[in-house]
Fold these 4 entries.
Entry 1:
Amino acid sequence: MFTGIVEEAAPVRSMELDEAGNGRLSVAPELVLEGLKLGDSIAVSGVCLTAVELDGTTFAADVSQETLSLTTLGALEVGSSVNLEGALRAGEPLGGHMVSGHVDAFGVLEAREQDARSWRLTFSVPAHLKRFFAPKGSVCVDGISLTVNEVEGDRFGVNIVPHTMSHTTLGERTVGDRVNLEID
């Protein structure tokens, strides 16, 4: 379980695919490595993965063909940034909402507008999932716990504060980009 409170955005060092189309993702974080052990769960842009290699500066996780095809991890390139969060530990504050790391679908960033010091982002969702979005409900976008502001048809909007915009991959997203969605 996770909270959707991203600890850091970090660069992808490599994504190697085997003959069957399964991957091994290597990421170079600065903060998340502290205390990370082999076998620990880590949310990578909202996708729960297992650390299978640690070398002091990077961790690696195996990514199945299914996960690569159903999440944005399949489009990662060396140098791409991913949001990282270590697994929730008993007794730690729950700052976002309960997040499983099981992505429900892709969303698409449809609009991005500055609103005073914040940003308003609008995402479209697959038609079969739109009924699960509600104003003031929670959604996890690329591993980030957010509050839904409004819902209209197959779109929902969120407000992003400056800290979130500068400390997560949302600051890099442009209209048309796909994101991982986990519905509350």
Note: The longest strand covers residues 105-115.
Entry 2:
Amino acid sequence: MHPQPIRHHYIPQFILRNFCFEDGHLYYFDKQTGCISVKDTRDVFMARNLYRDEINYAADPVKIEKDLAEYEREVAQIIRERFLNEREFFLTFEENEKLKLFFAIMGFRSLSARNSFNDSRSQHTKDYCLPYQPDGNVLDCWKRNLGYIVQCRSFEEVWNHPHIDEPMKVFSRRDTVGI
């Protein structure tokens, strides 16, 4: 049996690899130290067990990470086939919807989004989650909704999903109105 993944990337490695040298490394600027270093993609833009969810997925705590990896494979294939190999590219309606939702999920799955749900001072996220999370665990609210959203492949699926909380439906769509 394979060990469970613990490095959960909030920027997918398939995107990071486009910025690598031939040896697979890239330059990385650390804002906290002000230093630039050379790193492997597996070591940047990640947090250990970021999506690990033992509350909603006790039988498979890394389910969200696995579902994100599957979505990333689908999107990487679209980008490879439609953008990188063609002189002129076109997207099917389904591919367009999948890409739009994927990029919305990128913002929702970020470390800063997670931290806003984990920040005890953040009244904004509490206002979103507490009606939907009776025990007051707003980080669980973020993980639970991310787990459902990542199983969708279009905003229509998100909007029609019976288990995604209403504020998260709005949040997932925030940057894509008018696209």
Note: The chain has a mean pLDDT of 85.
Entry 3:
Amino acid sequence: MHPAPVDVIVPVYNEEAALPAFHRRLTGLDLPVRPIYIDNGSTDGSLRLLHSFAGAVVIEHATNEGYGASLRDGIRRATAERIVIIDADCEYPPEAIPEMVSRLDRADVVYASRFLEPQQTRMGWLKVFGNRVITRLFNLLFHQQLTDLYTGAKAFRREVVADLPMEQNGFEHVLEVAARLARAGRRFAEVHVTFAPRATGVSKMSHLSETIKYMYYLGRYALTLDRGGR
């Protein structure tokens, strides 16, 4: 029996140096994947590279519309019953995708966690601290047991996100989707991944300002979302 196809949604912004290795690793998996790349107004050679990848779907944003806008457009284009979101910088190993997808047999959404098992993390302490504070507050307010809310790799059953309202265009999209899914009673699971800091390029996130923004939206969604996640 052949495994079911998987749509892999990959937001891209100036990742020319990382894309060849990422695409090679992704398409080398023992899993039928269809990459859906969303180029978010890259100013380097990312878009040219994306169009050279045989079998890849490429969505072009003329300007930088934001991380959330990219993921929203990718989800709308997806047709497979299993959807994976992963960053293109190889910080999260594409090789984790088969395990994430397999866990969807028992869960609605699967997060790749950098903190599920003890490890010698190579992340900055401030980034680790901020993630853990936000994750614990999220767990408290939304009755979950996640260890890594702001992971850059996750898998979904298509039916749980196909009609989910998604309003946020920036990195706060991550919190919005998690909050709506939690309120809708969806089942979360996690798999452990070994985090490898990017070898090329720079992070697109300003962690201090984003943490402040996350705190605001965390309170907002805790107070306003109904049990259907709306």
Note: The longest strand covers residues 33-40.
Entry 4:
Amino acid sequence: MHIVLKIFLGGVAAIVGIASIAAASIWIIGGAKLNQKFTAPDIDIAHSTDPQIIADGERLATLTGCTGCHSERMQGKVMAELPEGSRLVALNIPRVAASLTDGELAKIIRYGVRPDETGVVVMPSQIFFILTDDDLKAILSYIRATPDEGKELPQMRIGLMPRLLFMLD
């Protein structure tokens, strides 16, 4: 009986050790992918205050899905809370945009690349990559015309499952 218990406990220890190494690997490799640097060309573009261009930008933001993730008035929302503790949050765009130039914001939209050259998490930039400069200008104009309504959002948490997905991408 004593030997069976030793074998059982040894097996449990091995499984726990392998699982710990796997989790640490996912955390480290997935985290490295999250912090990966990307280069994207600068975009020389400026928003407009023309009401027609702003209205077109609102239409385009709806058609391309901006308002699906960031909410109808672009104030952001929690997109998902995963059982392992991850929380995916679509940011309050008027608030974020206030600290960015038009070119920086356009680069995030079109290429999914922040000013620090890291990628934006879960941003479907492949949709926006094909937008004309006029369409991009319209979306920028809508964002600039949309006030920050003060909505506070919880912090994004990227846990093990999203890191695994980033690692496999």
Note: The chain has eight helices and two strands.
